[in-house]
Write a structure and sequence with these properties.
The chain is α/β, with parallel strands linked by helices. It is built from 15 helices and 14 strands. Strands 12-11-10-13-14 form a five-stranded parallel beta sheet, sandwiched between helices. The protein has a four-stranded parallel beta sheet with strand order 8-7-6-9, with helices on one face. A three-stranded parallel beta sheet has the order 3-2-4. Helix 3 packs across helix 4, helix 6 packs across helix 9 and helix 8 packs parallel to helix 9. It binds FE3-S4 cluster.
């Protein structure tokens, strides 16, 4: 592995023991994966910070890093946690859960993380085209690579911690321009409905791990695109898709498309995946939106649909804390109409069962997949229908 002067200094221990260890781990992983050198990274996004998911072993691991002097070398944001930091009691959580989750967040902040607690780092502090970053949340990775043209692989939670400490990542995979070339063409002309999440889930299921060039799909808005990308990341290990008229790199490969294997999925295949992750049961406990986290446009859209009406069913929204503090008035209006609004967390990484929810309607195929695999009964509808159903 080629190391530059600065990396050699880190390896010699000049920048401290933890940074030396972190860089050593990055080098070992890079060598295993065939990297010849490392790249400096500008931004890291750490996923896997929910106490529900990582438990005591995860907490102890982060504690060891923080207590031994681990500090992040670049801008580092963090994914949703297992609870709303202010409204954890309303979420039915106990003091033990609160304390442990709070400790995880405090340790990450001590190491230098910005407590964004959201899976939309691409809106909070977006990377630039071509920028090398290390992100660990699949919807964020897909958005960064496919919509912005930044460079990141799908990094695992612990790896991002070491990347944030060392400020380096192995120069492999989607970080290299030539390896961002599409490997399969996906023509969506035969899918004529607007089930964006399910369509993304189907694309991921068919393509699994390649780089799809996707065409003949139009999105009404950014949230539909985000639901689509999040679902691709759920049913596959894809980290980049080139979407015609959306991805900044798509035009580079236009002439290459004819040479690719082409798949043309249809509505029948879409219905098959729908029946895998969406149920037709009745009497749901709640209707939930915000996977990925809602941003301002989606919240405004909900406000418009609600108008002067009140929610007659339990309607729950998950948003970033950044938006919570910026849009207090708008959100207060929705709350007065009966919406429950949580920040810092989401429907998948929080223990929903503590909120007395077992059967749920969502607008996200990603959420539907994870919740149904945890034993919840889940139905998927469009965002508009989710809001309307909650008002009926
Ligand atoms: Fe975000 Fe949670 Fe969904 S982290 S993408 S809202 S599973």
């Amino acid at each position: 592995m080629f190391l530059d002067k600065e990396e050699e200094k880190i390896i010699s221990g000049e920048a401290g023991y933890i940074k030396q260890r972190a860089l050593n781990i990055i080098i070992k992983i890079g060598e295993t994966l065939g990297a010849e050198k490392l790249t400096k990274i500008k931004k890291v996004h750490i996923s896997g910070i929910s106490y529900k998911n990582i438990g005591d072993p995860g907490l102890e691991f982060i504690e060891k890093l923080a207590e031994n002097g681990g500090r992040f070398s670049c801008y580092t944001s963090i994914n949703p946690a297992g609870m709303d930091l202010a409204m954890w009691k309303e979420m039915g959580l106990d003091e033990n859960f609160f304390k442990k989750q709070k400790k995880i967040i405090d340790l990450l902040v001590k190491m230098g993380a910005v407590p964004t607690l959201s899976c939309v780092p691409y809106f909070i502090n977006p990377p630039k085209y071509g920028e090398q970053i290390a992100w660990g949340e699949s919807n964020a990775v897909l958005y960064a690579n496919s919509v912005i043209g930044a460079r990141t692989n799908r990094e695992g939670g612990p790896l991002t911690l070491f990347e944030a400490i060392s400020g380096r990542a192995p120069l492999i995979g989607l970080r290299i321009d030539e390896l961002r070339k599409p490997t399969i063409a996906v023509d969506l002309r035969n899918i004529d409905n607007k089930k964006y999440g399910l369509t993304g889930y189907l694309v991921g299921k068919i393509v699994k791990k390649d780089i799809p060039y996707i065409f003949n799909i139009k999105f009404k808005d950014k949230y539909d695109l985000r639901l689509f990308l999040a679902a691709i990341g759920t049913s596959s290990s894809i980290g980049l898709t080139l979407i015609e008229n959306i991805s900044p790199e798509a035009h580079l490969w236009k002439n290459h498309i004819k040479e690719l294997e082409k798949v043309v999925p249809d509505n029948k295949e879409l219905m098959d995946v729908e029946s895998e992750i969406s149920s037709e049961a009745e009497n749901y406990d709640a209707i939930m939106v915000g996977c990925p986290h809602l941003f301002i446009d989606e919240i405004r859209k909900i406000v418009n649909i609600v108008g002067n009406k009140r929610f007659s069913k339990r309607f729950i929204m998950f948003i970033p804390r950044f938006i919570y503090f910026r849009e207090k008035k708008l959100l207060e209006g929705l709350r007065k109409r009966g919406a429950e609004i949580y920040r810092d967390t989401c429907m998948v990484v929080s223990p929903l069962i503590n909120m007395n929810i077992k059967k749920v309607i969502v607008d996200s195929a990603k959420a539907a997949y994870y919740l149904s695999s945890e034993g919840y009964t889940v139905k998927i509808v469009s965002t508009e229908n989710a809001v309307r159903m909650a008002l009926e």
